[in-house]
Amino acid sequence: MQDKIKILMSGGGTGGHVFPAIAIANAIKQQAPNADFLFVGAKGKIEMEKVPAAGYPIEGLWISGFHRKLTVKNLMFPFKLGHSLIKARSILRKFKPDLVVGVGGYASGPVLQVANWMGIPTLIQEQNAYPGVTNRLLSSKVRKICVAFDGMEKYFPAEKIINLGNPVRDAIIHMKVEKKAALDYFGFTADKPVVFITGGSLGARGVNNAVMANLKAFHQAGYQLIWQSGKLYLDEAIEKVKGFEDLIKVYAFIGKMDHAYEAADIIVSRAGGIISELCIVGKPAILMPSPNVAEDHQTNNALSLVNKDAAQMLKDTEGEQKLFEMVDALWQNESQRKQMGASIRKLARIDSAEQIAKQVLSLN
Fold first, then answer.
1. Options 3.40.50.2000, 3.10.620.30, 3.20.19.10, 1.10.1760.20; which CATH number does 6-168+351-362 get?
2. Measuring CA to CA, which residue among 136, 77, 131 is closest to residue 296?
3. pLDDT digits (tens, 9 = 90+) for 201-223
4. Are 6-168+351-362 and 172-345 in the same CATH fold?
5. Hey, what CATH class is 172-345 in?
6. Among 47, 92, 112, 272, which has the minimal tally of Cβ within 10 Å of its Cβ?
């Protein structure tokens, strides 16, 4: 392997794609300190903010997903794809990467397709138990495929698959905050249970609707809630919480996730990339898979834990009716909480980013 290596990281769209990509880049930097990086994401998406904040340069493509339902937005998809392929080719020619890594998301497809055309070694990292169309299409051309779940040979060439788990942010792997400090951060006390509810970095309508429908029940029962609503839903959430602010705290985005995880007794979340963090945190979790993702992959993610008694699952359509009921039943059953925490902790992979970094560098 040469001393100076140029690596292009592509993908994003959600925190579940972006944060693993940053974790992989950080791990590569540890193993190859002279590496140069360029990220390529989708304009207007979370990566355009989070990647520069992590210290890496990024270029944006004019690209979005193809909607499964008939919509006028789909008429623009061929034009965006063509534009992105041309832009990706320009970026690759200018940066001249030795390797290209795709982590999924809108921008990953055009970039890796062009890299494959140009003969540049490529690797994809698939976070989900059911891969999206883009990674399935790319799988025949890439050199290696890093996955996080067993049984992926159903979708990818078996000889390319390496199961190394999903990379997790260093701050989560090495959580140092103590329980009291975490509770103080949110203005909570130790004598009442804490539930951390998150719809992900962008927020989620189904999760938020479930919380809003159950706010009174949570408050009357004395639960302390950390509610990450997402920026788009913040004003509505703040309005709904009026009168409950003593126990229920609303945030558009939580920067100190380690504090939220440590404060929580129970976690309610979507079932995307956050699952890998939940395994490390080791707290009982109720997963609400998003029904609005490709091939319903979050349900597959959730079931991979439910089938190991490592989490519970709540359908998005049943959240408004059953969220409080499920949380309260879990809180009342201490032995079940301990068992779920132990089971989910067994699935943790703390060295995922380092192992994927080794696979990336081995391509050079």
1. 3.40.50.2000
2. 131
3. 778 999 999 999 999 999 999 99
4. yes
5. alpha beta
6. 92
